[in-house]
Amino acid sequence: MNPKFKQDSVDGGCMRVVGVRTSGLGVVSRLALVVGLLTAPGVAAAEDVQSALAGVGEDLAAADKRISEINANLTNRRGLIGSFEAIARYEDAVYRYLMGDFDGAAKEFFTLIESGALGDDIRHADSQWYFAECLFELGSYTLAEEGYSVIVRSGDRHAHFASSVRRLLELYGITGDAKAFYNLYNAYIVSNKVSATDEVKYTLAKSFRRQGAALYVQANNLRWQGQVYGAEAMRDQAEQAFARAKSQLTQVGAGGNFYARARYSIGVILLQQGELAAAYKRAEGQDASVAELRAAAFSAAIDEFKVVAAVPQTSPEDIEVVDLANLAIARLYDELGRHNEALATYALIQRASKYFPDALYEMVWTAIKIEDYEAALDSAGIFLLAYPEHRYTAQLKVIQGSLHMKEKQYKQALASYERVVAEYTPLYDRVSKIADDSLAANDWFSRLAAAPDPAAYFNDELPLYAVEMLVTDPGMAKALRIYREAERQRADIAASEALISEIEAALAAGAGGAAQASEQELIGVSLSLQRAQGELLSAEETVLQEVGDPALREKVGAITLRREQARAELTSSRSGGELSANPALTAEYIKLRGELKALRSGVTDPIANGQLAEIDKHWATLGGLDKKVAEIQGRLGGVQSGELATIQRRLDQEKAAVAASKVAVDATLSEAGALAGMVTQEGFRELEDQFALSILKADRGIVDVYWVEKVRVTDELKAVKTDRSAMVANLEAQFSVIRQGLPPEPTPTAVEGTED
To answer: pLDDT (tens digit, 9 = 90+) per residue, 204-225?
Structure first.
């Protein structure tokens, strides 16, 4: 604080200069105001300086941190990516993976793995795992196998070693590579190198089940061909695979995340095993035992599914498995002829379940089997109200009319049949027209291939349920899947070509890759350091102004003026802000600081000396940071030239790979496009047949209604005629009786006749 200012304040000059009126204030308030006025200027200046120094300290710490990151990016780098940039890309890739963008995530993880930018960081191991998982989810099993195998070869020190073994076992089960499966199984599971957790047991069981099914199919084929010995051996292997699957599943502990799924899988295995064994019996010519074998398998499966249905539904997965179990139980009851039990089990599936439409639809058929047409009508009515655009809708509309007929509700039946004819006849005509027009079929295929979900297929040409019927056709669904995958690959190739063009243009313009980005960041750091120099000079000037005499203040003021002029003259700027730190300005700042330090000799105020010491400390930090920046800038040239060479080399490799991929994908798309129209036409012909059959059934229903009505009227007329004949006969009989009770009429005599 300025001593003269303190003396003036004591003399009361401050009060006279400010001229504050204190009348009307309380004694305490007036005293507080006086104290505030006496101390405010010096304290405020000191606080301002301290605040400025604190801000400079934070800026220097931030600059130091950023310099360290830039240095790490240049020092700890693999290929073209620095460590801190790699971490940012890793976090972005994980986010993509969690959001289900497996394609985008796979590309990011591949870049991180290939560059090795994460070094020995745990994120590198995570990237390897996520990359393989993305490929697995995308159905790229060959590449996924390679990704998991890299992890397995790394050994059990890898964070995802056990999970990769489990995934490989599952993958080999899917692809049917039994040799690779058992090699891995014996090497890591049998040897206990990988712990058999519930998840591992569940995975093994799925693979064993697939093996058992495949072996049984081969055994049945051999048996039909009369190769008895080979068939028996193959069947024994299949039974062993199924037994291993059930053994693994029964070891899954109750209450765990996989318990419900494990018990459900046991039920599925029992069914599959029973059906395949029954097929083998038929191949042997033992048809008599087939029904008994299937019934025993169904009953055993029901017992397992009941265990699942009793599991507490504590997770979405458990809720879904319980619904599947109830649906399976109901279907098996229906197969066994226990229809009432089937209906009761179907009713356990709630409307919120995605399996509710299937349950409701199947309830209609089950009720029909036991001739409970009223219940079937109720279920059909609920379904048509709840799901007017479902693939089952078309069939149920016809069934609804037939059910009305069964209930002798002829008017309602006639209305249902006529509604089907009125609705489906124009629809049949549109479908027939498309089926006969290859161009229209190709156009439909293109639209279906481009649409993300069935709801997007809807347009005025066909109702949604008709389109759902079309796309669920097995041949159509397979064609769409293949074509979409080829289109996705073509889009990736187009994006790669565009990226290659951008990189080539950037290289031609002298772009320096990641090194150039580091250079731009260093420019920003240099600017912040130069601003910190200016702020330190300003803070020191303020301190000296506060504690100095008039002569000192005059000298400090001159330095302040020179500082502001230098900054105005030497700072390069444009509308967007400063371009870079000016070395001349830095040199001028250092010169002015030296002059300010020479003026400190008369400073005795302890607070001021403490602030000047802090300023010196910040200047020392600034000097160290400037040296770091200069050192990094000196290395940038070599890094940049190396990056350019690496980019060009990799770019040439990628151009060749993209060109080869483009040829292959174009050939695939050409073949797929040629088949697409044929497949779509066949799909529409199948749809045409379904609507034609529905119309035919409705027409027959209408005829049945009119025939029933004709028979009823004929019967009524016949009954009236019969009643009339009976009434006439009755009357004649009555008159006959009456006549018998009357005296006979006299016969006229000859005499009487003469007299007349």
So the answer is: 898 899 888 888 888 888 888 8
Phi-psi region of 253 (alpha: psi -120 to 50; beta: other; left: phi over 0): beta
88 Cβ neighbours under 8 A, 6+ residues apart: none
588 pLDDT more than 90: no
CB 315 within 8 A of CB 257: yes
Residue 754 confidence class, pLDDT cut points 50, 70, 90: very low
Between CA 377 and CA 381, with CA 378 as vertex, the angle to 5 degrees is 80
User: Longest Cα pair distance anywhere in the chain, in angstroms?
Assistant: 191
Contact status, residue 70 vs residue 518, Cβ threshold 8 Å: yes
Residue whose token pair is 């890299």: 150
* In 360-430, beta strands by DSSP E: none
Q: At what angle do helices 316-335 and 259-284 cross, to 10 degrees?
A: 30
- CB burial of 656-693 (b: ≥16 within 10 Å; e: otherwise) equals eebeeebeebeebbeebeeebbebbbbbbbbbbebbee
Q: How confident is the model at residue 330 (pLDDT cuts 50, 70, 90)?
A: very high
Q: Is 74 in contact with 635 (CB distance < 8 Å)?
A: yes
Number of Cβ within 10 Å of residue 23's Cβ equals 5
The closest of 139, 77, 133 to 110, measured between CA atoms, is 133
Mean pLDDT of 28-42: 36
Phi, psi angle pair for 413, to nearest 5°? -65, -45
Beta bridge partners of 573: 578
* Cβ pair 55, 19 in contact under 8 A: no
pLDDT band at 11 (very low <50, low <70, confident <90, very high): very low
Give the model confidence (pLDDT) of 411-427 as tens digits.
887 777 777 787 778 87
- Residue 366, CA distances (Å) to 335, 345, 371, 687, 698 in order: 10, 11, 9, 26, 22
Q: What angle do CA 609, 611, 617 make, to 5 degrees?
A: 105
pTM for the full predicted model = 0.58
Spatial contact of 220 and 253, defined as CB atoms under 8 Å apart? no
As a whole number of angstroms, the distance between CA 580 and CA 160 comes to: 47
Is 572 or 314 the better-scoring residue by pLDDT? 314
Kind of pairing between the strands at 77-78 and 81-82: antiparallel
In sequence order, the 6+-apart residues with CB closer than 8 A to the CB of 218 are 234
Q: How far apart are CA 364 and CA 383, in angstroms?
A: 9
Render the burial of 163-189: b for 16+ CB within 10 Å, e for the rest.
bbbbbbbbbbbeeebbebbbebbeebb
Please tell me the number of Cα atoms within 13 Å of 455 on its side-chain side.
0
Give the SS3 label for residue 244: helix
Which tokens in the block code for residue 678?
């044929």
Reading the block at residue 655, the tokens are 């151009």
Q: How far apart are CA 654 and CA 504, in angstroms?
A: 12
Tens of pLDDT, residue by residue over 668-712, are 777 766 677 788 878 888 877 877 777 777 777 667 666 665 555
- How many C-beta neighbours within 10 Å does residue 713 have? 10
Our CA angle for 673, 674, 678, nearest 5°, is 105
**749 DSSP assignment:** P
Question: How many CB atoms are located within 10 Å of the residue 540 CB?
Answer: 26
Question: Rounded to the nearest 5 degrees, what angle is found at the Cα of 191, between the Cα atoms of 189 and 197?
Answer: 35
Return the sign of the alpha-carbon dihedral for residues 472, 475, 476, 479: positive
- 305, 285 contact by CB (below 8 A): no
For residues 26 and 128, what is the distance between their CA atoms, to the nearest angstrom?
A: 76
Contact 129, 163 (CB under 8 A): yes
Instruction: For 629-672, write each residue's pLDDT tens digit.
Output: 777 766 665 555 555 555 566 667 667 777 777 777 777 777 76
- Give CA–CA dist 29/35, Å, rounded: 10
Reply yes or no on whether the pLDDT at 270 is more than 50.
yes
What are the tens digits of pLDDT across the range 481-509? 777 777 777 777 777 777 667 666 655 55
Per-residue confidence (pLDDT) for residue 15, from 0 to 100: 30
